[in-house]
Amino acid sequence: MVAKLLDGKQIAKDYRQGLKDQVEVLKSKGYTPKLSVILVGNDGASQSYVRSKKKAAEKIGMISEIVHLSEDTSEEDVLSELERLNNDDSVSGILVQVPLPKQVSEQKVLEAINPEKDVDGFHPSNIGKLYIDEQTFVPCTPLGIMEILKHADIDIEGKNAVVIGRSHIVGQPVSKLLLQQNATVTILHSRSKDMASFIKEADIVVSAVGKPELVTKDMVKEGAVIIDVGNTPDENGKLKGDVAFDEVKEVASAITPVPGGVGPLTITMVLNNTLLAEKMRRGIE
Ligand code: GUN
């Protein structure tokens, strides 16, 4: 078997066209969605992510700004910047890029975002809503993964899904979304024993740990669907997934590449959630 390539770039392109059309409709009603991104410090990867988000927002007709604060900004100053954006009626969605410098508590900052502008879905009240199956902002990478599975017509109900990694950004929320669609979900993490035996039983594998070549051909069941969230730069700056792509594609039925798999969908879902935030606060739909 040679796996079908799950082309995140193409799926994202089509999805963004749909968002662009919806932005136009909102604009004709006098509302322009605006995404504000707070970036603290000079981490190269974070700078590149936030620039991509801004560019993507502008490309579909939204307004976007990056509030770039220096590495030594105090927690108090980050919180007051956040308060300003919370109260700014022109701002639909707010995102604080993580990680934050050590003097700034991530928990305090994420809790200070107005939950109605929390397009990352990181605020505790939005996380809580997700866990009791209420409609809410859902974190963008998990949402993007579900869109890839939906687009590829992959049956989830009753399937064994193994999620590798238990982060609050990806592993745990994507597990919840798979559970909502009636998969039998196993979460593997750094203390799990005999990971390979669980992966071997999986119909769907989502790997989100940031360890290149963690998932190899011998671990994967014939016909499994593989979603690779890893994006670790190698010594030449080339992004590497968690999955040994060239060998695993020989046994999987479908697989995401890195780059060009999950990444483009994450950004797309930031835009999706910004549009949703604008619609919700204007009482549209
Ligand atoms: N850092 C890595 N991924 C993310 C994300 O999805 N959102 C934010 N805000 N920061 C991140």
TrEMBL record:
Residues 6-120 form the Tetrahydrofolate dehydrogenase/cyclohydrolase catalytic domain. NADP(+) binds at G165, R166, S167. One of its GO terms (cellular component) is cytosol. Pfam families: THF_DHG_CYH, THF_DHG_CYH_C. GO terms for molecular function: methenyltetrahydrofolate cyclohydrolase activity; methylenetetrahydrofolate dehydrogenase (NADP+) activity. The keyword Oxidoreductase applies. Transmembrane segments: none annotated. Its EC number is 1.5.1.5, 3.5.4.9. InterPro entries: Aminoacid_DH-like_N_sf, NAD(P)-bd_dom_sf, THF_DH/CycHdrlase, THF_DH/CycHdrlase_cat_dom, THF_DH/CycHdrlase_NAD-bd_dom. CDD domains: NAD_bind_m-THF_DH_Cyclohyd (cd01080). Residues 139-280 form the Tetrahydrofolate dehydrogenase/cyclohydrolase NAD(P)-binding domain. Keywords: Amino-acid biosynthesis, Histidine biosynthesis, Hydrolase, Methionine biosynthesis, Multifunctional enzyme, NADP, One-carbon metabolism, Oxidoreductase, Purine biosynthesis. It catalyses: (6R)-5,10-methylene-5,6,7,8-tetrahydrofolate + NADP(+) = (6R)-5,10-methenyltetrahydrofolate + NADPH; (6R)-5,10-methenyltetrahydrofolate + H2O = (6R)-10-formyltetrahydrofolate + H(+). GO terms for biological process: L-histidine biosynthetic process; methionine biosynthetic process; purine nucleotide biosynthetic process; tetrahydrofolate interconversion. Pathway: One-carbon metabolism; tetrahydrofolate interconversion. Homodimer. Belongs to the tetrahydrofolate dehydrogenase/cyclohydrolase family. Catalyzes the oxidation of 5,10-methylenetetrahydrofolate to 5,10-methenyltetrahydrofolate and then the hydrolysis of 5,10-methenyltetrahydrofolate to 10-formyltetrahydrofolate. This is Bifunctional protein FolD. It comes from Staphylococcus warneri.
